[in-house]
Design goal:
Layout: E1 2-6, E2 13-18, H1 26-34, H2 38-43, E3 55-59, E4 68-73, H3 82-96, E5 103-107, H4 111-124, E6 145-149, H5 153-178, H6 186-194, E7 202-206, H7 208-213, H8 217-223, E8 231-238, E9 247-257, H9 277-291, E10 297-307, E11 319-321, E12 327-329, H10 337-351, E13 356-361, H11 366-371, E14 376-380, H12 383-396, E15 400-402, H13 407-410, E16 420-421, H14 429-438, E17 447-451, H15 475-485
Parallel strand pairs: 1-6, 2-4, 2-5, 5-6, 9-10, 9-13, 12-16, 13-17, 14-15
Antiparallel strand pairs: 3-4, 7-8, 8-10, 11-12, 14-17
Helix pairs in contact: 3-4, 4-5, 5-9, 5-15, 8-10, 9-15, 10-14, 12-15
The chain binds ligand BES, manganese (II) ion and zinc ion.
Zinc ion binds next to strand 9.
Length: 488
């Protein structure tokens, strides 16, 4: 979708935002007059009151400047925050995408409003249809351009640029999560991150031999039942001062999680194509930072593996030695995410001096039970980091909710045979997973773990801009967090 900004409207469809219980907006008055009051007419008689996202479609007479006009309810102006504005842009795209018309112009009250409406439109225009071969022309969208009509075009463009970069990150994350696991596996994922070099990102990929040298046997154990080689993806965005310590993002990249020998049940196993959602979020964030040339050093590290059962697969009862030297008794091969992350977290601290580390992972089914699909779980001992991430999440509509860590939970990880086991038992599954990770974070390191299992993909009802199975959760949150706390 091409998004543009202009101070006057030229399009097939023109849209006006109407205040709840308000009259026709100023911007619509000229067209109303020209059309003998067709727009005012649309406000009366039916149920249109200007409630948020209500729409009234007006067919304009021959010779009018536009073919259609849309009135969309903007709700009460006081309540028209970033989420509402994004929703308006998204709903307008949704209802006009297959209208048969190509261009849509939306009138906005301010530069900030225009930018938010535009980002909603951009995200709602997302499609993942590369794998359909039989789409008829009328099953494809007709809309190719959205233009925001606003007084201060320059300010609107400036407000949109960073939001658009974040949305590009979301789109990349969605594409990665949506991709089928026969096409997206550790090596092909690694090839995808190489593409970020075009934007100035420094990319390095380690294979199994190199990881073995580093002692990353927790990660390697997860991948050892797969025909695909495991990979460690390293993405460096060096937009800050030379030698300045980086912020580090770590992502779980289990390209497919069968559970391994502790095999998952068949129904819905296909959803585990999304078990690399953390790695997708990290990749999308690096893309966003690079696109907007963020003045900060950030390293993205993604542990890419496939968790498969075969004759070479890891067994329950195996004991592996992690890169940190700590040993882990595998009691359930389906608790593999933490095994991947613990070695990548260790790598982060051995090779860099992180200002902060945030890891993202579709780590536990338990977090879906705790928080459902509207908040990611956040675990950290740093109140500052908790506040930063919570705030960033609110600003961009990718919310996190803090849950506790604590030594009482940690003791559930005791093993008879090794330094720890990889499961904690039935109780507090998301917390014991976080406690496990904490054992691989050195004292004094500012670290947060985000369990995104409930938000990386969502079936069923969701907000209008979240149009595909994969939500692309993460890049907008992390990009905002970095912009507000670590830049300049
Ligand atoms: N990838 C899953 C977690 C998951 C579940 C993500 C549902 C998204 C939706 C993870 O690897 C896993 O299997 N976790 C187990 C841990 C258990 C064996 C301790 C779980 O949550 O059941
Ligand atoms: Mn698993
Ligand atoms: Zn998993």
């Amino acid at each position: 979708m091409k998004i543009t900004f202009a101070d006057s409207a030229k399009a097939d469809i023109v849209a006006f935002i109407v205040d709840e219980d308000g009259g026709l907006p100023e911007a619509a008055k000229a067209l109303d007059k020209e059309t003998d009051g067709l727009l005012s007419e649309a406000l009366s008689g039916g149920r249109f009151t200007g409630k948020k996202d209500q729409q009234a479609l007006v067919v304009l007479p021959k010779g009018a400047d536009f073919r259609r006009a849309v009135l969309i309810g903007g709700g009460k102006p006081k309540k028209r925050d970033a989420r509402v504005l994004e929703g308006l842009g998204a709903n307008l795209v949704k209802s006009n995408a297959a209208s048969g018309f190509k261009t849509l112009a939306i009138h906005a009250d301010s530069a900030e409003d225009a930018a938010r409406i535009a980002v909603g439109a951009k995200l709602a225009a997302y499609r993942f249809d590369d794998y359909f071969t039989k789409l008829k022309p009328d099953q494809k969208p007709s809309l190719t351009g959205v233009s925001l009509v606003v007084e201060d075009v320059k300010a609107a463009k400036a407000a949109f640029a960073p939001l658009s970069a974040g949305a590009e990150g979301t789109i990349l994350a969605r594409n990665l999560v949506n991709m089928p696991p026969n096409d997206l596996y550790p090596e092909s994922f690694a090839a995808k991150i190489k593409e970020l070099e075009d934007l100035g990102v420094e990319v390095e990929v380690l294979g199994e031999k190199q990881m073995a040298k580093l002692g990353m046997h927790a990660l390697l154990g997860v991948g050892q039942g797969s025909a695909r080689d495991s990979q460690l993806g390293i993405m460096k965005w060096n937009g800050g001062k030379d030698g300045e310590d980086p912020v580090i993002l770590v992502g779980k990249g289990v390209c497919f999680d069968t559970g391994g020998i502790s095999l998952k049940p068949g129904p819905l196993m296909e959803e585990m194509r999304g078990d690399m959602g953390g790695a997708a979020a990290v990749t999308g964030t690096i893309r966003a930072l690079a696109e907007r040339k963020a003045k900060v050093n950030v390293v993205g590290l993604i542990g890419l593996v496939e968790n498969m059962p075969d004759g070479a697969a890891q067994r329950p009862g195996d004991i592996v030695k992690s890169a940190s030297g700590q040993t882990i008794e595998i009691q359930n091969t389906d608790a593999e995410g933490r095994l991947v992350l613990c070695d990548v977290l260790w790598y982060a601290q051995e090779h860099f001096k992180p200002k902060a580390i945030v890891d993202l992972a579709t780590l536990t089914g338990a977090i879906v039970i705790s928080l459902g699909h509207h908040h990611a779980g956040m675990f950290t001992e740093s109140d500052d980091l908790a506040e930063e991430l919570t705030k960033a999440g609110f600003t961009e509509g990718e919310r996190v909710w803090r849950l506790p860590l604590g030594p009482e939970y940690d003791s559930l990880l005791k093993s008879k045979f090794a330094d720890m086991r990889n499961i904690g038992g039935r109780a507090a599954g998301s917390i014991t997973a976080a406690q496990f990770l904490k054992r691989f974070v050195k004292d004094g390191v500012k670290w947060a773990h985000l369990d995104i299992a409930g938000v990386a993909w969502v079936e069923g009802e969701k907000v209008a801009l979240d149009v595909s199975w994969a939500s692309g959760f993460g890049p907008r949150l992390l990009d905002r967090w970095i912009a507000d706390n670590y830049e300049g």
